[in-house]
Amino acid sequence: MAVTTKIRDWKIIVLRQRIITAALLMLALIAATTLLSSFNFAVLFALLTLLATWEWSGFIGLNEPRSKVIYCSTIASMIFGLFFLLRITPSAQNIDAVRAAIILGLGLLFWTLALFMLSTYPQNKNLWNDESKIASMGMFTLIPTWVGLVQLKYLLPDGYLVLVLIVLVAAVDVGAYFFGVNFGRRKLAPNVSPKKSWEGVWGGFTVCLLIGLGFAWMMHTYLLELSIWRFLLLGVLILCVTFFSVVGDLLESMLKRNQNIKDSGSLLPGHGGLLDRVDGLMAATPSFVLLTMLILGDSQYA
To answer: For 22, what's the count of Cα atoms within 13 Å in the CB-facing half-sphere?
Structure first.
C-alpha cells in the first residue's frame, strides 16, 4: 500500500511539473512569436536551435563536451551563413523564398526517407548507425525547422502562422495520447515505440482536422478569401501535419532507443529535453511551410 501511495504521489508531482512547464512555455512562446520583430525572432530561434543541437549530439553518441561544442559550432556556422543566403536582416520585409523552399524541400525529402528507416527498424540499423550519418540527420532536421519557422514569421509578422503550426502539432499529440490511452489496440511501431497505436494516429488526425477547420474559417474570414483549391491544399496540409508529426515522434524514439536513453535532455522539468517537445514540430514544419507558401503564393501576404 505504501509503495502504491508513493507511486501515485510521484505521478502527481510529475503531472504538476508538466502542466506548469507547459503553461510557462506557451506563454513565453506566444510572447516571443507575436511581440518580437521578424529578425529578432530569427535570432532567438537560432539560439533555441543550438540548444536542440546540443541535445542531438547525445543521439550521435558524443559524450565529451569538446565534441558537442564542435558539432554545435558546425550547425551555428550554417545558420550564420543562412542569415546572408536568405537575406535575413533587421530591415528586410521578407526573405529569399526560393532558397528557403529549397532548404525546406531537402528537409521534406529527409522526413520522407525517415519513414523507410522506421519501417525496417531494427534490421536496417547497420545502414545509418554511425556518428557521421546521425550528425547529418541533425542537420537535415534542425536547419529546415529553423528556416521554416523564420519563413512563417516573415510571411505574417504578427506570428500567427507560427502559432497555427505549433497548435496543430500539439493537437495531434493531444488527440493521439487521448485516443491511444482509451482506445489503442493495434500497435503502430512496436519495435520503435510500443505504446503508440493506430487508434492514436487517427485520434490525432481527428483533433488536428477539427482545429484546422477552425483556422481555415479564420483565415477565410480575416486573412484572404480561400478558393476551392486552397481549401483542398489545407486538407493536404492537415494530413501532412498529422503524418509527419507521428514520423518525427517515432524517429526521435528510435534514436533514443539506439543510444539507450530515456529523454533527449533535462532542460524542461516534467518533459525531458527540448527535442522531446519539438520532435513532431521538426518533422511537420517543412511540408506545412511549403504548402502555406503555395496557398499564400499569389496573395498580398506572400
So the answer is: 15
The grid coordinates listed for 292 are 502555406
User: What are the domain boundaries of the chain?
Assistant: 2-295
d(CA 116, CA 4): 42
Residue 212 burial by Cβ neighbours in a 10 Å radius (0-12, 13-18, 19+): buried
* Average pLDDT for 238-252: 93
Cα(162)–Cα(146) distance, rounded to whole angstroms?
11
Record the pTM: 0.90
Distance CA 242, CA 201 (A): 8
The pLDDT score that the predictor gives to residue 153 is 96
Whose CA is closest to 259, among 134, 127, 111? 134
Q: What percent of the chain has pLDDT over 90?
A: 53
Angle formed by the axes of helices 38-60 and 228-259, nearest 10°: 40
